[in-house]
Structure to design on (228 residues):
DNA sequence: ATAATATGCAACCAAATGGTTGTACATGAC
DNA sequence: GTCATGTACAACCATTTGGTTGCATATTAT
């Protein structure tokens, strides 16, 4: 059931992409509704090319897909990649839990019966 | 039940911290067993201060804690922060799901009965 | 006391990041 | 055809990032 067939480089790209407030906001918007780049750009104080660059970062991380539609590029969020990221984080939790289990086992060894 | 009382700056720090291979590896190791900085540093080709800096980044994101113990600093992973990050990601999924629900509702409206 | 170990921290450097402006091109509207 | 809109992309700039070396300090071991 472990699916994270991602390279370390891909993981880098996903977390780097999510490590920016504007990009997280773009992800939120594109998850809630598809929008063109200029529609998205209206919501931020920065220039249009700046927003374009953020979208390029998100696309490189496969968090978002750019779909040509006439002269527009429709941006759609990709929930599968978010799922992958969640799996990565839950992997850390598994490690933690197995550590706790090992510590519990050690304690049980020290006190055969109380 | 929504707990993510994190500022955007804190979220930035968490994802930026996780966006580096060495730092993810340090998190894995400190989740599986506490180690000193020099123990951790032995596993990487880079210099000791470089590893120190990575740990400082992780500590600023509250992903690990530095516990002074004699002349050593024991590094312990903090699973609560990983949990927060997971909650943030699952928030995206919720947005996605409610979007799908809205689309389904629209379709149902278009076809009152089939 | 001296030596070895573990850490802290400053100064420096190259590369990446996040922004800008300017220009070019494709598509849709009139 | 002309004009407006939407996007692409290059060049530039300041700041951040991820690494280095060198030196100082604290703690443990002999």
């Amino acid at each position: 059931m472990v699916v994270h067939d991602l390279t370390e480089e891909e993981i880098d790209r996903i977390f780097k992409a999510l490590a920016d407030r504007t990009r997280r906001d773009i992800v939120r918007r594109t998850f809630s509704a598809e929008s063109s780049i200029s529609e998205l750009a209206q919501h931020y104080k920065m220039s249009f090319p700046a927003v374009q660059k953020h979208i390029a970062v998100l696309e490189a991380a496969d968090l978002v897909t750019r779909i040509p539609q006439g002269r527009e590029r429709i941006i759609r969020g990709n929930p599968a990649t978010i799922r992958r990221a969640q799996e990565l984080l839950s992997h850390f939790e598994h490690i933690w839990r197995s550590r706790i289990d090992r510590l519990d086992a050690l304690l049980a060894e020290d006190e055969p019966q109380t």
Observations:
- Residues 36-38, 48-49, 52, 70-73 of chain A lie near DNA strand D (CB under 10 Å from a C1').
- Chain A touches chain B at residues 8, 11-12, 15-16, 18-21, 24, 27-28, 31-33, 77, 79, 82-83, 85-86, 89-90, 92-93, 95-96, 98-99 (CB under 8 Å).
- Strands of chain A lie at 35-36, 64-69, 72-77.
- Residues 8 and 14 of chain A are 10 Å apart (CA to CA).
